[in-house]
Amino acid sequence: MSKTVKHKTAETPPSRRMANRNVRPFFEKLAATIDEPVTELNYSSDFELLIAVILSAQATDVSVNIATQQLYPVANTPEAILALGEEGLKSYIKNIGLYNSKAKNVIKTCQDLIEKFDSTVPDNRKDLESLAGVGRKTANVVLNTAFGQPTMAVDTHIFRVGNRTGLATGKTVLMVEKKLVERIPEDLLLDAHHYLILHGRYTCQARTPKCGACPVYEECMFKDKAKFVEL
């Protein structure tokens, strides 16, 4: 009896380019099925969002929410987290991957926010990226979610969706980001990041995409999509 080979869709090469005429319908269909294009990180201030996004690098939103649910009632300002100290902070975030380095970055970020930005989260890329633990992706998330700027934060989900669907193909995160910004109509760009990440997280999954339940099946250029219709 022959062994069944599982398709490793996360490793498939980029699909052919999606036709320009299909880009708007692609997002309109996602909008029709995703009621709330928002982050799944829990936060109630710009600062809480910034810290949650720093903590979410190479970690799940669920694990971050579990940690911040305990942390934020105790410390949810730069001054309060700085007062905890690095070791104190670790006790709240030890369920999150890379918590040692993240604790160090968060403490340094809190120091910089107090000393350089009057304890206020910056609303521009240059200042955000000057903070410890804040790279381009994190800055894009904060600029988009906190300040309503039409940025595109490309994580593993969006990188996969862009390449697999043919919406925006590229070998690097930056290449995919630039192509998405170029291709997505301006009036759709603000929410596009969340539509793509939620679609990638729950439907266009890495190993077993749920093509049979995909609202953008017709627009998608993934050549093996018919093989996954039953999932």
TrEMBL record:
Its EC number is 4.2.99.18. It catalyses: 2'-deoxyribonucleotide-(2'-deoxyribose 5'-phosphate)-2'-deoxyribonucleotide-DNA = a 3'-end 2'-deoxyribonucleotide-(2,3-dehydro-2,3-deoxyribose 5'-phosphate)-DNA + a 5'-end 5'-phospho-2'-deoxyribonucleoside-DNA + H(+). The keyword Metal-binding applies. Gene3D superfamilies: Helix-hairpin-Helix base-excision DNA repair enzymes (C-terminal), Hypothetical protein, domain 2. SUPFAM superfamilies: DNA-glycosylase. Its cofactor is [4Fe-4S] cluster. It holds the Pfam family HHH. Keywords: 4Fe-4S, DNA damage, DNA repair, DNA-binding, Endonuclease, Glycosidase, Hydrolase, Iron, Iron-sulfur, Lyase, Metal-binding, Nuclease. The keyword Repeat does not apply. Binds 1 [4Fe-4S] cluster. InterPro entries: DNA_glycosylase (IPR011257), Endonuclease-III-like_CS2 (IPR004036), Endonuclease3_FeS-loop_motif (IPR003651), HhH-GPD_domain (IPR003265), HhH_base_excis_C (IPR023170), HhH_motif (IPR000445), Nth (IPR005759). PROSITE patterns: ENDONUCLEASE_III_2. GO terms for molecular function: endonuclease activity. Residues 55-202 form the HhH-GPD domain. [4Fe-4S] cluster binds at C204, C211, C214, C220. Belongs to the Nth/MutY family. DNA repair enzyme that has both DNA N-glycosylase activity and AP-lyase activity. The DNA N-glycosylase activity releases various damaged pyrimidines from DNA by cleaving the N-glycosidic bond, leaving an AP (apurinic/apyrimidinic) site. The AP-lyase activity cleaves the phosphodiester bond 3' to the AP site by a beta-elimination, leaving a 3'-terminal unsaturated sugar and a product with a terminal 5'-phosphate. This is Endonuclease III. The lineage of its organism: Bacteria, Pseudomonadati, Pseudomonadota, Gammaproteobacteria, Moraxellales.
